[in-house]
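Re-running DNA-binding protein to confirm reproducibility after the cluster update. Everything else is unchanged from the original entry.
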Amino acid sequence: MNIEQPLLPGTSLGGTSPRAVWDGFHAPRLTQARRLAGLTKREVADGIGVSAAAVGQYEAGTNRPRPELIPRLADVLDVPIQFFVAGRPMGKVDSSMAHFRALRSTSGAQRERALGFVEQVWELTHALEKRVQLPPVNLPGFTGGEVSPGAELPEDPVGAARALRQHWGLGDGPVRHLARRMEANGLIVVAPAEAEEAAAKVDAFSSSGLLRPVVVLTPNRADDVYRYRFSAAHELGHLVLHAGATGDIRLEREADAFAAEFLTPQKSIHPLLPRRVDLAQLAGLSQTWGVSVNSLVYRYRELGLVSDATISRAYQRLRGLSAQPGFAPQSVRGYPGEQPVMLSKAFELAEQDTGLTIRALAAELAWKPARVRELLGMPDSRPVLRLV
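Result of re-run:
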């Protein structure tokens, strides 16, 4: 992790000239902007009329783009020219610091774009945390946490899930409002809008490489609240079990085992599962426990309650019911407690207490105001003027 120092006193981002940006040009910001835009060095080079090798030199810090090229760079990458100025806090994240829910189906470019998104989420959080006291990180196993010394979880997924439930005082029943529960314990949880392409094209992912753990629940999960909740619990498992280790199918299976036990503890769900795989009864349990019927069927397999052949037949029957009430996916939009609010509420509190505005926050971050609204989940509600 690399956290840069705050902007030096007397330095202003407002009204910065291309020459001033050239004087304070910060190579990692160019890399971040390119990752966020999802562009290759060749594509950036073509956009500003230089060679790909030249862009490589700009990013390596061995050369700087000429002042007259900087507005072109900003235009190609859709950032203000002030974005490239050094001195603002920057949390750097690489692929060794993140867990991707579907690693094999996620391209390197998509992962790079998503990591840039996480960096910006952290920068926004850092800016808000200077004004508002956020919940302390209370996550045993997370090295940057603020838990009491000696708070540790077992290394096996099931034991860790049980211990975390106890640590968070969840008892043995259903976990209500999982996203809010995670936020209340200091985790940054974000659910980007469909328009946020930096995260929308990858599956759920998390990072433990910054001062607060970050969990990103992507739009393709939001169309099914139970799948969304399982993904959140899966990423929670990575954060407590797998600090410093990524990219292994074994780790993904461990995170799945953690999520299953965290959401449906064996000692609670076992007595409730009907002796025979009764899909109608499981549909009722699904609503009570906030997990899919598919997940409950899989619990039969995990607990060794029925044969694999019985499981296969149950899945076949489920496919035929997938569009029926009680079995069809339900959007997370109908479950406010599963939608993260910490960052937007922090902004609202700072707005009330200090007069902070979107425009002022954007200037501090050197982002466009629309980008701030996007990450806060606060779209511009003004009507759009269209000229025809």
